[in-house]
Amino acid sequence: MTVPINLAILGATGSIGQQALSLAEAFPERIKITGLAAASSVRPLAKAIIKFRPQAVSVLSATEAKKLVDILKDLGLNKSIWPEIFTGSDGVIQVATLSATQTVLSAMVGRAGLPPTWAALKAGLKVLLANKESLVLAGELIRPMVDQIVPVDSEHSAIFQALGGSLTGEGIRRLILTASGGPFLGYSKDELKGVTKEMALSHPKWSMGPKISCDSATLMNKGLEVIEAHHLFGVDFDRIEVLVHPQSVVHSMVEFVDGSILAQMGPTDMRLPLAYSLSYNSRWPILDDIGSKRSLGIQPLDLTVSPLTFAKPDREVFRGLALAEAVGRQGGTGAAIMSGANEEAVGAFLAGMIAFDKIIPVVEECLSLLSSEKVSSLDDVFLADKKARVLAKEIMEKNMVN
Ligand code: NAD
Ligand code: MG
Known about the structure:
Blueprint: E1 5-10, H1 15-26, E2 31-37, H2 42-52, E3 56-59, H3 62-74, E4 84-87, H4 88-96, E5 103-106, H5 114-122, E6 126-129, H6 132-142, E7 149-151, H7 154-162, E8 172-179, H8 189-193, H9 197-201, H10 210-218, H11 220-233, E9 240-244, E10 250-256, E11 261-265, H12 271-279, H13 319-330, H14 334-350, H15 359-369, H16 378-401
Helix pairs in contact: 2-3, 4-5, 5-6, 6-11, 6-14, 7-12, 10-14, 11-13, 14-15, 14-16, 15-16
The structure holds nicotinamide-adenine-dinucleotide and magnesium ion.
């Protein structure tokens, strides 16, 4: 008999969270939802409550909790089966560390994902990690607990799969992260000046939340992933390479000391790495053509459709990648400064306040004005992140006035 995984999903209304819930719906005998956390979007959350009956949920504020209660009343859910409703950052931690939970999917976006990820790790739980910012900000502190983490990010899942469901392996020479290149592949610096939010959010291969879509367009996402890979797999920055592979068929590769390269290929669908993170000593039948009754709409790869190409990224035009690689090499709080400034600048771009090609310069200016310090505790990380956010806002306001 299959024993279901007791799973809490943090970021349940987001792109990753909703895809994880579609797996829970398709495989109810394998996944039992214990808790759900989201910032707002209470209607999709209410729908998930009715379908999956978690013990507890969390939303950002008392106002959102009130809206959720109203919707649950409207939908006529019997009060005896309502979940416990928590609020705020403490509420997410309560949901992450419920006694019934064995496994936590960390899929909130940005810095907000770090405290609950940390709490789940400290509680000894298994963490399926989509929230790459946790490792970027606090990788040095998380490293001793890294064996509790299973990667969800597609590149890191690819490497994990190439290593046979392990974070380590014998004779690794290099990790090769592939990058689609984003919507602006081949653009010049001048061409980047005129791009709009809609263009930045139209990723050619993946459908994702707004922050990671924008990071993919600047290539900062790949920079964050290089740092994520360094902390996850314990590999030096000199041995992590990025190659642009616009077809997004090969999700990443491991090169070994004998010259062999193992690649993981698959459909561009996050439910594949998500299913592997849940199952990783077995494979779940998620493809549509294997005769399964539960259709997830995932088609097998057709390898005859297009040639596969690999090229060096343009680090001159997409300076975010080179910046993150340098910051990662330096260590300390630099990565928290970079991540905090980037999150503010991306937020300002998405709000229509700054131009796309000003995102990375704001991050660069923050990094030049704030010094990177040694990381001894989470407080060091949060302080660096906060200082970077304040400074990024000042820089952006000053530039808007000028
Ligand atoms: P998204 O914007 O679609 O969803 C974010 C989720 O986090 C939402 O449910 C939102 O309500 C919740 N959230 C945000 N702030 C919160 C807070 N303070 N408290 C509680 N909940 C909060 O983002 P996404 O695209 O699903 O990405 C989530 C994470 O996964 C990111 O770190 C991203 O880099 C990573 N990731 C995403 C993809 C993808 O395909 N979307 C792929 C790889 C990695
Ligand atoms: Mg990725």
